[in-house]
UniProtKB/TrEMBL annotation:
This is Trk system potassium uptake protein TrkA. One of its GO terms (molecular function) is potassium ion transmembrane transporter activity. PROSITE patterns: RCK_C (PS51202), RCK_N (PS51201). InterPro entries: K_uptake_TrkA, NAD(P)-bd_dom_sf, RCK_C, RCK_C_sf, RCK_N, Trk_Ktr_HKT_K-transport. Pfam families: TrkA_C (PF02080), TrkA_N (PF02254). The keyword Transport applies. Keywords: Ion transport, NAD, Oxidoreductase, Potassium, Potassium transport, Transport. The gene is ktrA. Coiled coil: none annotated.
Length: 445
């Protein structure tokens, strides 16, 4: 697959890393030679020092025969314009990163598609979805719903209260049990577990289950004492905070602490009256105490500074807040933040890159999520007629090492998968894979 990426910035760099694992034909365009030099030494790709808005540069990059053109520069207008040019030249699909929420309205999608922009990526909106999913379940690190919750994947940090530690998975998660452990993150290692593997204290375990069994999962992992989130305190009033607040459940009460007085005035104008905006520093402990941090169930740090967000979440934890969320835009800090056990980590560029990642797949892939914490992919494949995966029971398919099937959705009903399961055409199947080229999985579907 021939892919052109415009913009050697955070999203473009992370996306190149994801795509290069699959040995794709990648060309990266950027006007800055220094940025290009940094990435070309780390990944197997071609670079072109030029403006993505140049027709000559696009032709030189091979836009006439490209399968996918992705423009993720900081300039929204350049992203849109270069996508239109690439499509006109001959590229099959184009993707543009945008900064304007009005462009993601349903009626705007067709408008941009007609202009030659196949898909729009608004990182702040994608991050807001992840933030709110984390807040809805205070005891879960990550949640991913498939088909409106017919299947649910839960990433859960295991503590001393967990009932299922130190037992072989085959004894606690058999074919008739209402959950599967599809992956385990232990320290720096990711494990796709077998029946003899065990869950250990402080593992981050990924459970696949159905929605009606979520309370059961909560019980066996010992998280029933975690209170549900009703009061949320947010540090930083940027675009991500605005999108998150606008899409939060109505039962949540929100306070935003923002240092910039002018931005506070803007927030008061664009947010509902039930959102309290406070001008101050979210690291100021007396201010946090005055604003009721000790009776707050969730603290969300969304400033542009990763160190500030990490330290603020650690402070909130010490003051008794159970659920903390930190936006960490520097990928080098993500592992450190996770080791400090501060809660849910939000990285907009990784979320956006993972969202774009699915567009490179040829099969009928509905959804792909790259789990930074586990260095693994979760993908939802729709099974085609006559697909290889339908010819034998799961145990006889010969799936590559590092791959497991977590569950499937058939006619709207979620079900878990075991070795005897026979997958059928039209099923939506959840695949979890670690260090495996997605193309190897694609051929089964």
């Amino acid at each position: 697959m021939k892919i052109i990426i415009a913009g050697a910035y955070a999203i473009g760099t992370h996306l190149a890393k994801l795509l290069s694992r699959n040995n794709e034909n990648i060309t990266l365009i950027d006007e800055n030679a220094e940025r290009l030099a940094k990435i070309s030494t780390d990944f197997d790709l071609l670079t072109l020092e030029a403006s993505p808005g140049s027709i000559k540069a696009l032709r030189e990059a091979g836009a006439e025969s490209a399968d996918l053109y992705i423009s993720v520069t900081p300039d929204e207008a350049l992203n849109l314009n270069s996508c239109m040019l690439a499509k006109a030249i001959g590229t099959k699909k184009t993707v543009a990163k945008i900064d304007s929420p009005e462009y993601i309205a349903p009626d705007a999608q067709k408008f941009f598609s007609d202009l030659g922009v196949s898909s729009l990526i608004y990182p702040e909106m994608l991050a807001a979805v992840d933030i709110n999913n984390g807040l809805k379940m205070s005891w879960v690190r990550q949640r991913w719903d498939v088909h409106d919750g017919a299947l649910v994947m839960l990433g859960i940090k295991l503590r001393e209260s967990c009932e299922i530690l130190n037992q072989p998975l085959k004894t606690i998660s058999g074919p008739d049990d209402p959950y599967h452990i599809v992956a385990i993150k232990r320290g720096d290692d990711t494990i796709i577990p077998g029946g003899n593997d065990e869950l250990k204290l402080y593992d981050l375990a990924y459970f696949m289950t159905t929605r009606n069994y979520i309370p059961y999962i909560r019980k066996i992992v010992g998280k029933e004492h975690y209170v549900d989130v009703k009061n949320v305190m947010i540090m930083g009033g940027g675009k991500t905070a605005v999108r998150a607040v606008k899409t939060m459940p109505e039962y949540m009460d929100v306070k935003i602490i923002e240092q910039d007085e002018h931005r506070c005035e803007e927030l008061n104008n664009i947010l509902e009256d039930n959102v309290l905006v406070i001008n101050g520093d979210g690291r100021d402990i007396p201010l946090l105490t005055e604003e009721g941090i000790r009776s707050t169930q969730a603290f969300v740090a969304l400033t542009g500074n990763a160190e500030t967000n990490i330290l603020a979440c650690l402070t909130a934890k010490r003051m008794g807040v159970r659920k903390t969320v930190a936006m960490v835009e520097n990928l080098d800090y993500v592992a450190m933040a996770e080791s400090l056990d501060i809660g849910t980590i939000i990285n907009k560029k990784a979320i956006a890159a993972g969202h774009i990642y699915q567009m490179m797949l040829d099969a009928d892939v509905m959804n792909v999520k790259f789990l930074n914490s586990a260095n693994a992919d979760v993908a939802e494949f729709v099974v085609g007629e006559g697909a290889k995966v339908t010819r034998k029971p799961v145990k006889d398919l010969g799936l590559p090492p590092g791959v497991t099937i977590g569950g499937l959705v058939r006619e709207g009903e979620g079900m878990l998968v075991n070795g005897n399961t026979q997958i059928e055409p039209g099923d939506s199947v959840m695949i979890f894979c670690h260090n495996v080229n997605m193309k190897k999985i694609e051929k089964f579907f």
